[in-house]
Amino acid sequence: MKKPNQNLKYNPTQTILVDADGVLLNWEYAFAIWMEEHGHEQQPGSAFVYDIGERYGITREQGKKLIRMFNESAAIGFLPPLRDAMYYVKRLHEEHGYVFHCITSLSRDINAQRLREMNLRKMFGETVFESIVCLDTGADKNEALEPYAGSGCWWIEDKPENADVGYSMGLNSMLMEHGHNMHHCCNYPVVKNWREAYQTIVGHEANDIDQ
Asked: pTM for the full model?
């Protein structure tokens, strides 16, 4: 699995940086099913809560442990796509020539990383992803984003802190809206689905041509 590369060669005008969980893949849905199978129920009114411990009425440390267990289980290789991601990622790649670099805080476990790559390529195709970087579970993405600093690449995330970091580095951040981030105040676009992301990217592309 590829690791962050400070000497990475890429075309900033044709490269889209993406998170996987909550952006390309519906991690939350699959995790909820897995938790139910393991005897854990969500607390009433916790649908918009980000912290897994709070959502399931357990400690934060227990929540982190269960996330790692899930991310290193066989289930991680079979996550469904998020919303309309498959259709619009394919259009951006095939019709507009974009390639995707995925930066995902998954696990250091090599088998989990292989399952993640298998899942992404099965859902989105063999040629979409030029790079897939798997970081440790819950890891910050500052270092992984460094090779792209100042490039103006699109950076699509669902975690506000990571989107903010990218924005501060000179990336065109975009936040995929979920219950846990819908009230985040930022100076970059917040989109409800990939249709809106597609329109934002293609509209920006058209504006560049007009100029």
From this structure: 0.92
